[in-house]
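agent> Task received from the user: take the single chain below, predict its 3D structure, and emit structure tokens. No templates, no multimer pairing.
agent> Plan: (1) validate residues, (2) run structure prediction, (3) serialize to tokens, (4) report one or two observations.
agent> Step 1 OK, no nonstandard residues flagged.
tool_call: predict_structure(input=
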Amino acid sequence: MKTIGLLGGTGWSSTIEYYRLLNELVAERLGGYHSAKILLKSIDYHDIMVNYGVNHDDVAKVLEKELQELIVLKPDCIVICCNSLHKYYDMIKLNLASDIPVMHAIQLVADHLKTKKQKKVLLLATKFTMEDGFFSKILEDNGIQVEIPTAHEQDKMQKIHVELMHNVVTQESRDYFSNLITKYKNLDAVVLGCTEYPLVVNNENSILPVVDPITLQSISAVNYALGLD
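)
tool_result: status=success, residues=229
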């Protein structure tokens, strides 16, 4: 079994989901007492979080440094446990001079949607991600139509995101997202473009099929680690 490298702590509440799912997938595939071989580099997220939409160069520099330190540990593949950071990974990936494959969250979403023939989707993400447009652009470049919530809805989502970053998960938040998704029921799927949103959105409380990058990254990493891709 190959070793999966996680760049986590981005934020820590969602990194838990990566660790859980990777181990569950390996146990499901191999049975017995098998678990995933994981290298977790958990970083201090503050300097990145406060610079989203403020100083792209600072975020890119921090990400490059943290990824270089993870690469030195020689994992066989890498998962960046944050959707937003993929914008900056695309900016600095050539600087890394590494052939270690990275399970790119947004491209995996695009590939999944094309496979499922889901052409119109609702993107739920942080205000930064939706305003910046990097996630939407990759999907649109792959022929997928993207709708995003209204400015008022984004403001409410952002308040919930602050809670989720501290692992505060409430039924009120679950209900808000369930009702929000229902307003867009004419679309083909909902994409969870924020890494914390799977804490409050799943196929049980969404009228639309849920596309979760955490799940797609984890499946891709486990397939690679077990030689199944």
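agent> Step 4: summary for the user.
The chain has two domains: 4-104+215-225, 105-211.
agent> Done.
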